[in-house]
Amino acid sequence: MISLVRMRTLAVATLALTALVACSDDEPTTPTPTTGTLAITVSGLPNGVNAAVSVAGPNGYTNTLTATNSATVNTGSYTVTAAQVTSNNVRYNATVTGSPATVTANGTATVTVAYAVSANPTVVLSGSIAANRTLTPDTNWVLRGFVYVNSGATLTINAGTRIVGDTTALGSALFILRGARIVANGTEAAPIVFTSQRSAGNRSPGDWGGLIIVGNARNNRTGNIIVEGSDGSVVGANPAGVVYTGGTNDADNSGTLRYVRVEFAGYATLPDAELNSFTFAAVGSGTTLEYLQSLAGLDDSFEWFGGTVDGKYLVSYEAGDDHFDGSEGYRGRNQFLIAMQSTFITPRAGAGAISADPQGFEIDGCNGGGCTAPAGGNAQSSGATDGLWTMNIFANYTLIGTGSTTTPTNGGVGAVLRRGTGGYYINGVIARWARQAVSMRDSTTNNRFQVDSLIFKSNYLAENGVQNGGVTFDPTGTNFGQESAFTARGQTNEVAAGTVTASSLFTSLPALAATPTTATLDWSPAANSPIATGGLATFANDPRIAARAGTFISPTAYRGAAAPGGTKWWANWTNYARN
After folding, report:
1. How far apart are CA 396 and CA 188, in angstroms?
2. CA 453, CA 444: separation in Å to the nearest integer?
3. pLDDT at residue 492 in the model
4. What distance lies between CA 54 and its chain's CA centroid?
5. What is the DSSP letter of 243?
6. Which residue of 59, 167, 296, 470 has the smallest Cβ count within 10 Å?
7. Structural domains in the chain?
8. How far apart are CA 128 and CA 448, in angstroms?
9. DSSP states of 319-364
10. C-alpha distances in Å from residue 295, one per residue of 10, 183, 232, 339, 342
11. d(CA 118, CA 83)
């Protein structure tokens, strides 16, 4: 009996425990948490500029963030890094606080990324550039001495890049040698600027050398002729200089310059041997030149020594010598040019002197050693026997001089044509040149004129000759450029009445006594301006011009560099300053 009772009691207990266990299995359980929150805050960048934040975590987790962000992530350790950001040529470096961050179950880990402006690094360019190289706008570039881009190398310069000439190595300049290329593609909003190392307000003409491109096109001088000033005593200079004669390929390509300014250049490396703002020595037609400005150079703003390169949209403000200088068989075509000389800026001490004969155009046939006289001719006509006369075209130019301001001894002429040059000059405006508007200097040039290889027509001439009795052309008995001579060959030009001022021709041109600013220079014709009409609107009746102009030079019904109501192509990227 006792054993039976015990067995019943054990059975009941077992059933109760089983029921209790069964009842416990039906109760809900709370899982252990496995996620938390990773919060990343980003600060210090301008509005609209994205951060560059990277996150790495457990199990291969990665994420890239551009702004403040919070995310639910698995628990574990997360590493946050931030790359440098560049905006408008300004670098921003980041400081990361709180990384690595440990995310716990149901917890929040916070990482801060604080960006701050970082000084752009400075890189000095010197000696030779023998391999392809790119200059970017987030670096301060300094030319120290003569810097040569060697044959076979391409120097690429990105939009917005600024390059300065080292003022502790006077005469610093950039040479693109024969066989090398420069690809400098600026934009209207971000031009490429070569300028003085000194600060605004302390700059002067001659603070540095300039930009020199040497191509493989032909010119009309023989022998080993070097770029003027290239043998000067400048850091890194080749004492033998840089030879530019002997080229063979008129279609040679030295690269591209587009939206490029050269400011306060022109250092004299030797007495009477100044570098120019832009020097194009035997540069070929495969090269592209568009939207270029020279500002306050000590010597010529643009100079061509032979070659065939074409150009459009060229601006020169305040030259120490000539604004546009061509010679030695230059056969390129240029359209839409502006030159303004309102004063003569004092050069940097020891850098050289203002020229004795600064002009608007100064165009030569040939002069100096290596100019070989053709049979029965003068050495100034070198190149006649092989088609290498200077035969450039300049169309739609606006050349403004100093008016009544005293000019150097032999300067102050809008266009000087001399030494056996040919060439075509059409649809231009020449105004305020103190001595006269145009001068044809010698018999060798007159020879080109008499066979219609020198054409000067459809130009508007106003307010010239203030210092010379109101002279516009060469006076009778002086040189060869009398108005009657041009008229006799059907080369008609319009001389404005004495009451017409240069300022009245344009939308905005300050009066003589005023200092120009970038904002006060608008070269568009004013309402009812005489330069809005009168241009050579077709070349059909001028087969010589038509043949040489090809499709590059367009005929226009207006005169000067800007179309009435047209695009202000010089706006936003050019600059005006005197120091």
Report:
1. 21
2. 12
3. 97
4. 38
5. B
6. 59
7. 35-118 (2.60.40), 122-370+380-549 (2.160.20)
8. 43
9. -SS-SEEEESS---EEEEEEEE-S--PPPPTTS----SS-EEEEEE
10. 112, 21, 23, 10, 12
11. 13
Q: What does the DSSP 8-state code read for residue 380?
A: G
Distances (CA, A) of 62 to 11, 18, 65, 68, 268: 60, 50, 10, 16, 59
Question: What tokens does 439 get?
Answer: 């001068």
The C-alpha atoms of residue 555 and residue 340 are separated, in whole angstroms, by: 23
- Asked whether the beta carbons of 381 and 365 are under 8 A apart, the reply is yes
Strands 62-65 and 53-56: antiparallel
DSSP characters over 174-241: EEE-TT-EEEEE--SSS-EEEEESSPTTS--TTSS--EEEE-S---S--S-PBPTTTTSS-TT--TT-
Rounded to whole angstroms, the Cα distance separating 10 from 1 reads: 15
| Angstrom distance (rounded) from CA 457 to CA 427 | 7
Residue range 256-306, pLDDT digits in tens: 999 999 999 999 999 889 999 999 999 999 999 999 999 999 999 999 999
**Phi and psi, residue 400, nearest 5°:** -115, 125
Q: How far apart are CA 343 and CA 569, in angstroms?
A: 24
Report CA torsion sign: 357, 361, 366, 370. Answer: positive
The amino acid present at 72, given as its one-letter code, is T
Among 57-66, 219-228, 234-243, 462-471, the range scoring the smallest mean pLDDT is 462-471
473: Cα within 13 Å, side-chain hemisphere: 21
Residue 64's contacts (CB-CB under 8 Å, 6 or more residues apart) are 52, 53, 54, 55
Look at residue 9 and tell me whether its pLDDT is greater than 80.
Answer: no
Query: In angstroms, rounded to a whole number, what is the distance separating the alpha carbons of residues 310 and 312?
Result: 7
CA atoms of 177 and 215, how far apart (whole Å): 7
* Banded pLDDT at 22 (limits 50, 70, 90): very low
Spatial contact of 552 and 396, defined as CB atoms under 8 Å apart: no
Coil, helix or strand at residue 98: coil
